């Protein structure tokens, strides 16, 4: 697992390192060295153009430029101001050193001049803006960013692609598209979320100091990015000694006359994700249509109310069935009304692992007038509880109905309000988004994000089915719950990649994921085993 720190905490680690005897100047030297090494490792170098900004990110660029020049590379620096007028004392020092060493530099080139230099460049080092960036890139950096992106050169970004907020992942004024980002000390959330997923390229971590790892952990990471090998704990010994019940029985509760399909897909996804026995319970008015789509999965119809949703009379029977299952998924397509709210509240009282998705979450919002974090007793229970809100649902759960969390870290914070209010029980909030965080009481995990084709109607219903099937396999301890949820997210993403191979990256519908879930599970499990054995997936083929 790799720790992810908020930018303000990275600064704190920088300070801690200085207290432990590693000066900022030394850190900058090592940062520049890491960047230079990355570029030199590309081999067969043509000209390298280093774009240096006015802060310490630019300082890293000047150090790299001097080191690459000394290693024999043909290097030139572009700077918006004369090196001797740099305000950051550190950047000033390293820029003067590079100038004294004979590194050629150009001050405030016009767009045409810049384009001419970039056209010759094999590699561009982007050291314009780092963690000190805020707002939108001002002139001339806005123009320089465009020029880099138009150049076609291989781009190595220093710490963070310029224009991208390392904290939020937002890039309102455009950002450099890097092939590689050499990031200092540790991962930052903006690199892994929002536009960061598009613009960072391969992320190379430069720890800069041997103490960094310890200090980063002490600085209380906002999240941890999962490595494939981490999922070992979620795997089960393969055994032939099973029957359909011991593989896990799942009850899916959902559907309404408006949305029968969501519940059908969730049930199929649970079955394709290894649950041995799946039952779907829906309002009886849609039972027949559901049955026509489900050959193996029994469909139980319970009384329907005037709104086409479960009526109050359905509740007792649902609870009775729930208590006999190893996991319950409630919510897909269910609709929200007083009767479905009462179904959700009864299920919360059942001693069975429970996944609440979609309208079950909206029901929770309604029960708590959008402040679930103020009603922890509602979700305090012995058996595991997984909530899978997308950002709008999450906003509605924590008092921001019209204002969903706008970044990964805002989503993590909102999810933490729920799990921390709840305190000690087995709870995980899977805050879904273009980057998803699985937030437990102790830890927030970031599974590898799936492809963009997952952003399609019904995709969440499929994820709910996967979650339920994995939880149904048996006891999941509190500390492993977020890991199981993260694994489910990666299986979802893997299935999406397989579906995209068949249907194209834009043609995938949620139902296409379902048929690939079994293959995705097998492939993921194999990758985990290989990763634990230290074999890369390519070697394993
Ligand atoms: N993490 C580490 O251990 C180390 C990191 N290093 C590098 O240092 C940068 C952070 O350096 P810092 O000086 O704090 O900030 P930047 O260089 O990223 O940016 C500051 C300058 O950029 C200007 N700025 C800010 N926003 C904009 C904008 N929208 N448009 C134009 N210019 C902008 C800012 O100007 P102000 O007027 O706001 O002051 C500054 O001039 C980090 O990313 C690493 O690369 C060190 O090497 C040490 C180790
Ligand atoms: K940069």
From TrEMBL:
Residues 227-524 form the YjeF C-terminal domain. GO terms for biological process: metabolite repair; nicotinamide nucleotide metabolic process. This is Bifunctional NAD(P)H-hydrate repair enzyme. It catalyses: (6S)-NADHX + ADP = AMP + phosphate + NADH + H(+); (6R)-NADPHX = (6S)-NADPHX; (6R)-NADHX = (6S)-NADHX; (6S)-NADPHX + ADP = AMP + phosphate + NADPH + H(+). The gene is nnr. Homotetramer. Residues 10-216 form the YjeF N-terminal domain. HAMAP family: NADHX_dehydratase (MF_01965), NADHX_epimerase (MF_01966). Its cofactor is K(+); Mg(2+). GO terms for molecular function: ADP-dependent NAD(P)H-hydrate dehydratase activity; ATP binding; metal ion binding; NAD(P)HX epimerase activity. It comes from Granulimonas faecalis. Its EC number is 4.2.1.136, 5.1.99.6. The lineage of its organism: Bacteria, Bacillati, Actinomycetota, Coriobacteriia, Coriobacteriales. Keywords: ATP-binding, Isomerase, Lyase, Metal-binding, Multifunctional enzyme, NAD, NADP, Nucleotide-binding, Potassium.
């Amino acid at each position: 697992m790799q720790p992810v720190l908020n930018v303000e905490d990275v600064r704190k680690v920088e300070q801690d390192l200085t207290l432990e005897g590693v000066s900022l100047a030394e850190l900058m030297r090592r940062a520049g060295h890491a960047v230079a090494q990355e570029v030199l490792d590309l081999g067969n170098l043509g000209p390298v153009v280093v774009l240096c900004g006015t802060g310490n990110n630019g300082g890293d660029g000047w150090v790299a430029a001097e080191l690459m020049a000394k290693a024999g590379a043909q290097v030139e620096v572009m700077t918006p101001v004369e090196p001797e007028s740099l305000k950051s004392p550190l950047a000033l020092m390293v820029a003067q050193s590079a100038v004294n060493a004979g590194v050629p530099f150009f001050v405030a080139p016009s767009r045409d001049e810049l384009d001419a230099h970039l056209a010759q460049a094999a590699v561009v080092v982007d050291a314009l803006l780092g963690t000190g960036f805020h707002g939108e890139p001002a002139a001339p950096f806005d123009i320089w960013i465009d020029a880099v992106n138009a150049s076609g050169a291989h781009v190595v970004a220093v710490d963070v692609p310029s224009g991208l907020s390392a904290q939020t992942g937002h890039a309102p004024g455009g950002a450099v598209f890097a092939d590689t980002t050499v990031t200092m000390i540790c991962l930052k959330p903006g690199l892994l979320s929002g536009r960061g997923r598009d613009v960072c390229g391969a992320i190379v971590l430069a720890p800069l100091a041997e103490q960094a790892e310890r200090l980063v952990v002490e600085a209380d990471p906002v999240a941890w990015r999962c490595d494939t090998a981490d999922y070992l704990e979620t795997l089960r010994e393969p055994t032939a000694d099973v029957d359909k019940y011991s593989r896990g029985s799942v009850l899916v509760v959902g559907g309404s006359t408006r949305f029968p399909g969501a519940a059908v897909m969730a049930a199929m996804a649970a079955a394709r994700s290894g649950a041995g026995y799946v039952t779907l319970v829906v309002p009886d008015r849609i039972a027949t249509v559901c049955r026509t789509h489900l050959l193996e999965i029994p469909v139980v119809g319970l009384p329907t109310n005037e709104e086409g949703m479960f009526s109050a009379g359905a509740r007792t029977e649902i609870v009775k069935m729930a208590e006999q299952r190893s996991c319950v998924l409630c919510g897909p397509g269910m609709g929200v009304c007083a009767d479905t709210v009462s179904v959700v509240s009864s299920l919360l009282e059942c001693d069975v692992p429970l996944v609440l998705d979609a309208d079950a979450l909206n029901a929770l919002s309604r029960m708590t007038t959008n402040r679930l974090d103020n009603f922890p007793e509602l979700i305090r229970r012995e058996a595991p509880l997984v909530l899978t809100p997308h950002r709008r649902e999450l906003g509605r759960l924590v008092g921001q109905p019209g204002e969903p969390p706008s970044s990964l870290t805002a989503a993590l914070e909102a999810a933490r309000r729920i799990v921390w209010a709840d305190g000690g029980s087995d709870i995980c909030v899977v805050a879904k988004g273009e980057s998803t965080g699985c937030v437990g009481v102790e830890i927030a995990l970031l599974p590898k994000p799936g492809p963009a084709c997952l952003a399609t109607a019904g995709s969440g219903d499929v994820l709910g089915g996967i979650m339920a099937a994995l939880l149904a396999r048996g006891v999941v301890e509190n500390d492993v719950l977020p890991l199981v949820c993260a694994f489910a997210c990666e299986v979802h993403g893997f299935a999406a990649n397989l579906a995209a191979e068949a249907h194209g990256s834009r043609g995938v519908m949620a139902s296409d994921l379902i048929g690939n879930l079994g293959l995705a599970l097998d492939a993921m499990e194999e990758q985990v085993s290989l990763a634990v054995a230290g074999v890369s997936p390519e070697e394993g083929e």
